[in-house]
Amino acid sequence: MSVFVALTFSGVALGAIYFLAASGLSLIYGLMDILNFAHGLFMTLGAYAAWDVATHVPVSWGAPFVFVVALVAAVAGGALAAGLTEVLVIRPLYGRPVSQILVTIGLDLAVTGLLLGGFGSNSLSVPVPLWMMEASHIGGVNLPNADFVALLGGVVILVALEWFLRRTRYGIIIRAGVENRAMVSALGINVARAFSVVFVIGGAMAGVAGLLYAVVFSGDLISPTQGDSLLIFAFIVVVIGGLGSIRGSAIAALMVGLVQDYTNFYWGSHSGMAEIGNLSVVLLLALVLEWRPRGLFGSTL
Amino acid sequence: MTNAVHVEDLHVSIAGSHVLQGVSFEVPSSGVTSLLGRNGVGKTTTLRALLGLVAGTGSVHIMGTEVLGWPTHRIVRLGVGYVPEDRDVFSALTVEENLRLAEQTSEPRYDEVYTLFPELRERRRQRAGTLSGGQQQMVSIARALLNGWPLLLVDEPSKGLAPRLVSELAEVLERAATLATILLVEQNLALVKRLAQRIIVLDHGEVVHVGVAGELDDPLMARRFLGVAGAL
Questions:
Q1: Residue closest to B30 by CA, chosen among B197, B216, B192
Q2: Quick check: A294 pLDDT over 90?
Q3: Taking CB atoms and an 8 Å cutoff, what residues of chain B touch A94?
C-alpha cells in the first residue's frame, strides 16, 4: 500500500510539471491557433537562466534563497524567450500556420544547437536546498520533498491562471478570443497585444516547468535537449485535455503523470522495458481520442 | 457636416469571389440608413469591410477619417458599435463579462443599457450561451450601445427572432437611433420602413439605388430591387 501511495504522489508531482509545460501551449493554441514547437525551448532556456543566475548568487545567501532566485530567473528566462519569439518570429507570420510550425521547429533546433555548442552535451547541475533532496516520512510513506515543490508549483500556477482568466480583463479577452477572435477586435480590443500577453505567460510557465522537471526528475541536472523531451508529453496532455482548455490540461496532466508512473513501476520493472510508461501514455492518448476526438474539454477555458 | 460613413469604389474579394465590385455610398451623420438587397449581394461583407474585418480596396471614411487598411480595433475606437449577424455573443462568458469586454470608455453607460434591457441585469451572471436568441440579441446590442459610440453598424438584428421580439427590437433600435447614427442591414422590410429614413440597395456587389424609405411602399420597387412580392 505504501508503494502505491508513494507512486501516486510521484505521479501527481509529474502531472503537475506536465501541467506547467502544457498549459502555456494550450493557451497559445486556443487563442492564436499556433502549434508552438518552440515551447520546449522556452522550458530549456528557463532552466538555463535559473542555472546561470543560481551559480552567480553567493552561497552565503542561503540555499533556499538561491533556489527562489533561480525560480524567478526561470520565469523571467522563459517569459523573455517567449516574448522575443512572438515579436520577432511569430508576429510576421500571422495567418500562415504552416510557416509558423516550420519556423518554431527551426528556432528550437537552432537554439538547442547553440546551447549544445556553448555548454556541451553534458548536463549542468542546478544548486538546490538540501531539504529538496531529502524525503518526508508521512503516514508510514517516504515522500520526496522535491515532489511537494512540484505539486505546490502546479497548484499555485493553476489557481493563479484560473484567477487571471476569470477575474482580469486580459483573462476575459483571452477566453473570448478563444471563442471568436474577430468579434473581440470588433469590440475595439487590440487582439495582437493579447497574443503577446499569452505568449509571455506561456513562456513563464514553461520556464518554471523546465526548472522543476530538472530538480524533481533529472537529479538537479539540466541539458539542452530536456525541453524537447518534455514538449512531447506537453503536446499529448494538451490534446487529451482538449486544445485551448486549461482545466482539461490540468486533468489530462494528472492522468498522464499517474498512468506513466504506475506503468513504469508495475510493468516496467517486471518486463525489463524501462520506457514502457511512455507507451502507456500514447495508448491513453489513442483511447481518449477514440472516445472524445476533441479531447476531454475541447475549446473551453 | 461630415458624413458618418463615406465609401468610394470599394472592392472586396473573398476566396476568389469578387463580392463587392466598386460600392460607393454615403451615410449622413444622423438617423437610420438601411442597406438592402437580396441574399448574397454583399450587405454583410460591406459592413465587415467598413470595420476592417475583411480586406478591400478603394476608400472608406468613417466620420471623416480614411480607415481602409486599419486594424479593426482602431476603426472601432473611432466610435463604431457593431451588432453582427448571428449576434456572436461569447457563449462561454457571462452576460456581465460580455459587456465588460465591450467597455472602451472610462464611463460605460450601464444604466442606460440596463434601462433598455432590464432582463440583462437580472441575468448578468448567466452564461451567454444559455440565453435565448432574443436575449443574446439584447447582449449584442447592449455591447454596441455601452460606450455611447456615435455610429452603429447593425446586421440583420431581427434574424431568427419571433414576431413579438421583433417589435421589442424595433423599439430598442428607435431609442438607439436617437443617440447614434445607424447603418442597418435588414431583410424585414416592415422593420426597415419603421426605422429607416434612407435606403441603399445593393445588387451583384454594386449599389443600384439610393433613396428614401418611403419608396418601399411601392410594390414595384420592392419587387425590382429586393425580390419580394410587394410592399409589406
A1: B197
A2: no
A3: none
How long a stretch of residues is chain B? Answer: 232
The 3-class SS string of A34-91 reads CCCCCHHHHHHHHHHHHHHHHHHCCHHHCHHHHHHHHHHHHHHHHHHHHHHHHHHHHH
Tell me the H-state helices in A144-190: 145-167, 169-179, 181-185
Cross-strand bridge partners of residue B207: B202
Question: A195: part of which helix (H) or strand (E)?
Answer: helix A191-217
Using an 8 Å Cβ cutoff, are B63 and B76 in contact? no
Cite the DSSP H helix spans in B43-162: 43-50, 72-77, 95-102, 110-116, 118-122, 133-145
Per-domain residue ranges of chain A? 13-224
- Strand A221-222, strand B32-36: pairing: unpaired
Given an 8 Å threshold on Cβ–Cβ distance, is A188 in contact with B104?
yes
The cell numbers describing B188, all together, are 424585414
List, in order of start, the domains of chain B with CATH numbers.
1-79+151-157+181-232 (3.40.50.300)
Q: Decide if pLDDT at A5 tops 60.
A: yes
**Residue B162 pLDDT:** 86
pLDDT in tens, A61-70: 888 888 999 9
CA-to-CA distance for B52 and B197, rounded, in angstroms?
A: 26
User: Cell 510550425, residue?
Assistant: A101
Q: Flag residues of chain B having pLDDT under 50.
A: 229-232
pLDDT at A42 over 50: yes
User: What pLDDT does B231 receive?
Assistant: 41
ipTM of this predicted structure? 0.91
Strand pairing report for B32-36 and B198-203: parallel
Consecutive H or E run containing B109? none
Residue B80 parent element (H or E): strand B80-83
**For chain A, what's the residue count?**
301
Nearest-by-Cβ selection for A183 from B77, B84, B147: B84
What percent of chain A lies above the pLDDT cut of 90? 57
How many contacts does A have with B, using Cβ atoms within 8 A? Answer: 61
CB-CB neighbours of A28 under 10 Å: 26
- pLDDT of B1 reads 64
A185: closest chain B residue by CA: B73
CB of A190 less than 8 A from some CB of B: yes
Give the B window 85-124 contacts with A, CB below 8 Å. 88, 90-93, 97-98, 100-102, 104
Please judge whether B82 and A175 are an interchain contact, meaning their C-beta atoms are less than 8 angstroms apart. no
Closest CA to A47 of A9, A20, A27, A19: A20
Q: What is the CA radius of gyration of chain A?
A: 19
